[in-house]
Design goal:
Bound molecules: flavin mononucleotide
Structural class: alpha/beta
CATH architecture: Alpha-Beta Barrel
Oligomer: single chain
Number of domains: 1
Keywords: Flavoprotein, FMN, Monooxygenase, Oxidoreductase
CATH topology: TIM Barrel
Number of strands: 13
Radius of gyration: 21 Å
Pfam family, one: Bac_luciferase
Helix content: 25-40%
Largest sheet: 8 strands, parallel, barrel
Order of helices and strands: EHEHHEHEHHEEEEEHEHEHHHHEHEHH
Distance between the termini: 38 Å
InterPro entries: Diverse_substr_monoxygenases (IPR051260), Luciferase-like_dom (IPR011251), Luciferase-like_sf (IPR036661), NTA_MOA (IPR016215)
CATH class: Alpha Beta
Shape: globular
Family: Belongs to the NtaA/SnaA/DszA monooxygenase family.
Strand order of the largest sheet: 1-2-3-4-9-10-11-13
Protein name: LLM class flavin-dependent oxidoreductase
Strand content: 5-15%
């Protein structure tokens, strides 16, 4: 029976994908500032059968809707938002096997510094870190990070290509495995002959020296990628070990997955070796009726302006300029092209009225409400019809959605042989089904190894 991988999808903010639900009395998203909140969540996920906690991130405010940031600010739509990396080592200290996927953009930070941060986390978590490689989509981020507006969409990916090349050289090529000798008698901690300058001089980056860190358990963290435009797919086909996609139906997601697997094969890699995760928000209760009642109570709390603020940031489209029943059209934007395509060209053109209902809960992915058996059936249907390997499960309330899922659905998935009783490991790479802790050929990163 094919394994189903499960990530909890979250962000270091009070309102992630379900705009307005911070008003729910059980929602604890506002505790995102407390370390205790993250430690409790990590323990719940670790014991509850999740493979990883996957953390999104943005470096700007959502200010496309109505030409203003007010809706996003008032509704806590991914604002305020803290740095996603800080709590990870603390979470690792209270968990055994949970992985941590962290989103960091290649657009606003030098690879030399980022590679060190991720390696530090890989050491402190004993090899349980993944990097979700993104290129960003908000003009507001660009403006506050020293640019007039965003670097053009496809060039951001050109930068990302060179960025990961630098990282591979640092992670895989700079240090030999046995460089650290700690030879007290000779007075040698690290053998200088086994640490190498990477000598990188490219179009965007110059890194002549050696990596600052000694090799960590995975060396290169597990590489996730999110972004499914034509250019995004090309990047993923070369570099991603796992890809995060989203779309409203299996039919829409299947198109991206087929295109991705074909592109991976063209790169000489096994198309099944890339794990695809799609976004879904589960609403589960003991019975179908209870789950539907719960869903209705959630729907009453949705903030449409908050949802439209998120949509504006993702796609660059200001829904305030459209009539409620006017279908959206696709135009190449500088934002997240695949997000817009999934509501226009991929299947059918959605209207703002339909979007208000759909994205209010769970963002760009579907919401499914049902009993444990019905939710498990739905996940199996997605695996079959969309050809995905797992899910980034978004929440309506946190930690409520994750606790319900761990309590009701994971045991059902275990009964069906979809989730193992004990996780594989010990590293995240092995837990996700790869043969060893480190990148393996023909992944291009492995070719930099000494
Ligand atoms: C499912 C999904 C999740 C994403 N999550 C993030 C994120 O958390 N932060 C971010 O800056 N970009 C995120 N992105 C967007 C990527 O940064 C992407 O590089 C950029 O928007 C271009 O996407 P495109 O190739 O689909 O046009 C996400 C994209 C997808 C499809």
């Amino acid at each position: 029976m094919t394994r189903i991988h499960l990530n909890a999808f979250d962000m270091a903010c009070a309102g992630h994908q379900s705009a307005g639900l911070w008003r729910h009395p059980e929602d604890q998203g506002h505790r995102y500032r407390e370390l205790g909140h993250w430690l409790e969540l990590a323990k719940l996920l670790d014991q509850g059968g999740f493979d990883a906690l996957f953390l999104a991130d943005v470096l700007g405010v959502y200010d496309v809707y109505g030409g203003s940031r007010d809706a996003a600010v008032a509704d806590a739509a991914q604002f305020p938002v803290n740095d996603p990396t800080m709590a990870i080592s603390a979470m690792a200290s209270v968990t055994e096997r949970l992985g941590f996927g962290v989103t960091i953009s290649t657009t606003y930070e030098q690879p030399y510094a980022l590679a060190r941060r991720l390696t530090t986390l890989d050491h402190l978590t004993d090899g349980r870190v993944a990097w979700n490689i993104v290129t960003s989509y908000l003009d507001s981020a660009a403006r506050n990070l020293g640019l007039d507006s965003q670097i053009p969409h496809d060039e951001r990916y050109d930068i990302a290509e060179e960025y990961v090349e630098v990282c591979y050289k640092l992670w895989e090529g700079s240090w030999e495995d046995d460089a650290v000798v700690r030879d007290v008698e000779r007075g040698v901690y690290t053998d200088p002959a086994k640490v190498h300058d990477i000598g990188h001089k490219g179009k965007y980056f110059s890194v002549p020296g050696p990596f600052l860190c000694e090799p960590s358990p995975q060396r290169t963290p597990v590489l996730f990628q999110a972004g499914a435009s034509k250019r995004g797919l090309k990047f993923a086909a070369s570099h991603a070990e796992a890809v995060f996609v989203s779309g409203p139906s299996p039919k829409v997601v299947r198109k991206s997955v087929d295109a991705l697997r074909a592109a991976v094969a063209e790169q000489g890699r096994d198309p099944r070796s890339v794990k695809v995760f799609t976004m879904l928000t589960p609403v589960v209760a003991e019975t179908s009726e209870e789950a539907q009642a719960k869903l209705r109570s959630y729907q009453e709390l949705v903030s449409v302006p908050g949802a439209f603020a998120l949509f504006g940031g993702w796609t660059g489209v200001d829904l305030s300029e459209l009539a409620l029943d006017e279908p959206l059209t696709y135009a190449d934007s500088n934002a997240n092209r695949s997000a817009l395509a999934s509501f226009t060209t991929a299947d059918r053109a959605w209207t703002p009225r339909e979007l208000a209902e759909f994205i209010g809960l769970g963002g760009r992915g579907p919401v499914f409400a049902g009993s444990p058996g019905e939710v498990a059936d739905e996940l199996e249907r997605w695996v079959e019809e969309a050809d995905v390997d797992g899910f980034n499960l978004a929440y309506v309330t946190t930690p409520g959605t994750f606790a319900d899922f761990a309590r009701w659905v994971v045991p059902e998935l275990r009964r069906r042989g979809r989730v193992p009783e004990a996780p594989e490991g010990p590293t995240l790479r092995e837990r996700l089904g790869f043969p060893g802790p480190r990148l393996a050929p023909p992944h291009p990163g492995a070719s930099y190894r000494r």
